[in-house]
Design brief:
single chain; Cytochrome Bc1 Complex, Chain D, domain 2; peroxidase; Cytochrome_c_Peroxidase/MauG; signal
Length: 341
Amino acid sequence: MRRYSHWRRILAGGVLLLAVHAGWIQADELDKTKALYKRPSSIPFPVQNPYTPEKAALGKMLFFDPRFSRDQNLNCASCHNPSFGWEVPFAKAIGAAGAPLRRQSPTVLNRAWASHMFWDGRASSLEEQAKGPIESKAEMDIKLGDVVKRLSAVGDYRKAFNTAFPGEGITENNILKAIGTYERTLVSGTTPFDRWVEGNDSAISTSAKRGFVLFNGKARCNLCHSGWNFTDEKFHDIGTADDLDKGRFEITGKQEDLYAMKTPTLREVAHRSPYGHDGSLTTLDVVVQHYIQGGAPRPSRSPLMQPVPLTNEDVKDLVEFMKTLSSDSAAIAMPNLPVPQ
């Protein structure tokens, strides 16, 4: 412990030699690790739904339009609010008739790189994901066919669809394509961590740098929160107290998926409390404490969930690092929604 503390003091003095539980990280090894988290230079769009600015602009209008709910009181942003990391600051999202849903709403940020949507991965594309909440009785509670009728009564929407989808117009499929296109453009902003990865050594604090080493070393966070988006896009039972929600098991019926939920991105995590599929982890400190303890023991708990002996200072450093994964809040210009004429 004295040797570990000694090297922490050296790090504070600016020497690029970082201590972890298994040895030392030299400057070249640190650079290799940082490179694993470098942001991509472009957004991937599927061949079957390529990007066009007209389609994205239309999708943005649809995303914020309450005509997509039975009572015209909810839109996609009701659960995915840009002011809160494209989530909502509640343990559970609110659906039709003001009733809470069974899970916390996941962020829609960086979903262009995702292979599965929802906590349980039941949708394999953003187009499929968009349809789910619209037609869910508990959420927006309206059939897409009825949405088509509503939008078809609006002249400006007819024009917008004909521009985005020449010769096709307003169809259920085109509605989902437009929303999916817009959602793929929702990418987290450049963060202090990104600037550090790009070479600005003063972009994050010494505490956050120690946290990065812990994240990729003794704390073992990178085993699930990997890559530039800080998620392996896999499903794990992390031992939360909720034993009623069976997670991905409800989709696959496989025992290995019992209580398993998709690893969430850590991008914009400082803006997205509370945490966990059930919103039971109220702060980042509570999240780290949950992992230190290893979660509730049960047969399905991921073997990656092991108690981790971290000090209070380690916890502080990890939280400081995770805060560097959030960008400055940026105002989102709301679209002008067409009205019937």
